[in-house]
Structure formats: structure tokens, C-alpha cells
Write a structure and sequence with these properties.
2 domains; 13 strands; 9-stranded mixed β-sheet; alpha/beta
Length: 406
């Protein structure tokens, strides 16, 4: 082979070697602490922010199979840090944690009620700006509590609280429809949008009869506090202004077309002291804003189908021709009442969580241009009409109830 060709090959190999320098920013898994949830509160020191994190302890999750952990050892570490900004507080964890915190697995951003009422825009900036945190982390507000206290809650059937919380959220979404769904990306988009205000998921501490500060404990025999996750936190711009309870939250979900399932309880026709449970099978919802006589009105339309789940007392629909239609009317009334309760609460709080203004902007930009500067004054007086179509499909494996022989 000619010398010139060999020199070219040598130069090419050297160039390839220089460019193939490996992963310059690689991080070994053994050097990382995986954050599963983060809480945000006002620090005791004036002007500072307190971050509290759940960090997974992999050697404890395994239940001691490698000889380093035990089944009694809690599989997470709760630790707090402070700073004048969230970014500073995150970096200050290095003074307490032997591992660098990794945010790619974080599922929850919890905010204490007191802090949320002062505004959350500034503290969310880091989670949006940095490429490591998940944009689909759930935004949750701790009702009547600090986020650091909520992060000390545990659950009976899961060792990792974040895993248990996700199970409750998914169960409530698919089986109850009483969760106000709000992920970080949704929250930010609504903050930036015109004619719409954000919501967050509501969580509450369920106390147990013992002190529940679990920091520093390796073993515990009882759970000090658990949590209930249901309902929604209502924001005006970036400030918490109030709450939706379970029926109001499902009313909100009816309007937004987010009801997936749930139980509707109606009074039994002919026996008002007894009840019938109906299981929602499927539902559709939506709304249309219009301008009538110079005023904004909104028509909400909901369609729902359900099965009969249980009936108190004896009932034979085949021998009572009008009872089936009566049950459907009562089902429609419950849905209408839930929607109107959600609308009334939103208007009371002057928070357009439905996006009536945003939809008006989409349909009639010229009119919205006239209204947007005074939408805060217009929204509480928007006339809302609710139209519901309710259909009962099946009665289960039996048509009539069991009759007791007398």
C-alpha cells in the first residue's frame, strides 16, 4: 500500500478517535437519587422557598434481597432544602444528599395551600425551563396543609407513596370521575391562555392517632398519616382562590367531556326513602358560547349512558312501564345539578376554569376583542343553560329485584 494512502488512513483513524469521545455528560445510576415527588412551601426564613422531596431508596425497595435493606425499612427518604429561588434550593440539596438528585422520574409537584394563595408562577419556572423534569407531572395542592406535611403521608397497600398516589388518581379518574386533572404542561398552557384559568388536583391529609414525622426513621410499625386525593383546586391566574368538592368536580368534568365512569345515586320512584345506584358507562360533554341580546350565554350539552347497579327494595320495571323513563329523568337531573353546582362555584370565585372565554375567542374573535379586558366582570354573569340526554342501557343479570315471600 502506498505511503500516502497509509497516511490518509492514519489521519482518518485519529480524527475518528478524537470525535468519538463518549458521553461527556454521562451520569452513573449509582450516583443519582431519584426524586418521585416534590413539595413547595414558604420557608421559615423570610423570603425563602422550601422544597421537600421524596427520594427513592433502591436498596430498600428490593426488600433486602441483596442484604443491604430490610422489609421494615421505608423505601424512600424525605428531605428538605431552602433557597431564594427553586433552582437554588435544588442545588442546596447537595449539602445533604450523597447523590445528585435526578428529576426525570418525578410524578408530583405538591404545593401548600398558603403558598398557592400567594401565586405559583415563579416556582413553576424551573420545572418548565429545565429539560430534566417531566412536563406531565401532576400539579397538586394540599388543602389546609403544607406540602412538606403531605409528603409524609403513607398508604397501606403500597410501600412507595408516589406509586400509591398514582393508583388513587387513576382509580378516581376511571372509576369516579371526581379528580381535577392537571398536569404541569396543562397548567402552564392555561396560565398563558386567554379566557381560561387553571385548576389543580386537591389532596388532604388523613391524620392517624400518632405523631407522623417519619424523617430519620428506618423502621415503622404504624402509618402516621395517609392522604385523600379528590376534587380540584381553583386558580385565578396563578393564585389559588378556592376548591371544588367531589360533585362539583364531576360537574366540571361533565362540561369538559372528561367523565369516564362513576356512580350516580337517584331516589327510587315511588319510594323516596330508598335509592338506586347507576353506573356510568360512557359520556360526552361540551359547550357552545353565543352572544344573545348583547350578552354572553353558554349552552352545555351532556350525553350519558348508564347501567343499573343496585336497587333498594323490590322493583319490576316490566310491570311498571313508566319507571324506566322516570329513572332516566332522575339521572339527568343529577347530572344537571352537578354541572350547575360547578358553574355556580366557578362564577362565585370569578375563575373561568371551563374556558368559556377561550371558546368565545375561537368562535367570535371580534366580540372577544371587545370583552377580554372586562371578562372578569362578564364571566360571573354569563347565562348557562344545561341540556342532558340520559339513557339507561341494562339492568344487570336480572330485570326485577329479589322479592321476599311474606
Amino acid at each position: 500500500m502506498p505511503v500516502k494512502s497509509m497516511l490518509k488512513i492514519v489521519v482518518l483513524v485519529l480524527l475518528i478517535g478524537i470525535t468519538m469521545t463518549g458521553c461527556w455528560n454521562r451520569r452513573e445510576i449509582e450516583t443519582l437519587g431519584f426524586v418521585m415527588a416534590v413539595g413547595i412551601d414558604q420557608a421559615r426564613e423570610g423570603g425563602k422557598i422550601q422544597l421537600t422531596v421524596h427520594v427513592a431508596k433502591p436498596f430498600a425497595v428490593g426488600g433486602g434481597a441483596d442484604g443491604k435493606g430490610t422489609m421494615e425499612e421505608k423505601p424512600f427518604w424525605v428531605v428538605s432544602s431552602t433557597g431564594y429561588t427553586v433552582f437554588e434550593a435544588v442545588r442546596n440539596f447537595l449539602s445533604q444528599s450523597p447523590r445528585r438528585l435526578f428529576w426525570g422520574h418525578n410524578r408530583f409537584i405538591l404545593i401548600g395551600e398558603e403558598f398557592a394563595r400567594k401565586g405559583v408562577q415563579d416556582v413553576l419556572d424551573t420545572f418548565v425551563r429545565d429539560g430534566e423534569p417531566r412536563q406531565r407531572a401532576w400539579v397538586v395542592v394540599a388543602k389546609g396543609a403544607r406540602a412538606s406535611d403531605l409528603l409524609q403521608a403513607e398508604f397501606e397497600l403500597e410501600r412507595m407513596p408516589s406509586q400509591a398516589a398514582m393508583g388513587i388518581i387513576q382509580g378516581s379518574r376511571t372509576g369516579l370521575s371526581t379528580i381535577g386533572k392537571s398536569m404541569l404542561i396543562d397548567f402552564i398552557q392555561k396560565l398563558e391562555g386567554e379566557g381560561i384559568d387553571p385548576i389543580a388536583t386537591r389532596a388532604e391529609i388523613v391524620p392517624r392517632p400518632q405523631k407522623f414525622d417519619i424523617r430519620g426513621e428506618l423502621k415503622r410499625e404504624k402509618i402516621g398519616a395517609s392522604a385523600r386525593i379528590t376534587g380540584a383546586a381553583v386558580f385565578k391566574d396563578d393564585k389559588l382562590v378556592g376548591w371544588l368538592n367531589k360533585p362539583e368536580t364531576r360537574g366540571f368534568n361533565w362540561v369538559m367531556g372528561k367523565v369516564r365512569s362513576g356512580i350516580i345515586v337517584i331516589k327510587k320512584p315511588g319510594e323516596e326513602d330508598r335509592f338506586i345506584g347507576l353506573e356510568i358507562l360512557r359520556a360526552k360533554g361540551g359547550f357552545k358560547p353565543e352572544i344573545k341580546d348583547g350578552r354572553v350565554s353558554v349552552t352545555v350539552r351532556v350525553e350519558a349512558e348508564a347501567n343499573v347497579g343496585d336497587i333498594q327494595g323490590f322493583l319490576d320495571p316490566l310491570k311498571s312501564p313508566g319507571v324506566w323513563a322516570s329513572m332516566e329523568r332522575r339521572m339527568a337531573t343529577v347530572i344537571r345539578n352537578e354541572v350547575m353546582a360547578a358553574v355556580a362555584k366557578a362564577q362565585e370565585l370569578d375563575s373561568d376554569i371551563f374556558g368559556f372565554g377561550a371558546e368565545l375567542n375561537r368562535r367570535n374573535p371580534k366580540k372577544w376583542a371587545e370583552l377580554k379586558d372586562r371578562w372578569d366582570e362578564e364571566f360571573p354573569h354569563v347565562d348557562v343553560q344545561v341540556e342532558v340526554k340520559a339513557k339507561l342501557r341494562r339492568s344487570g343479570l336480572v330485570i326485577r329485584s329479589t322479592r321476599i315471600k311474606r
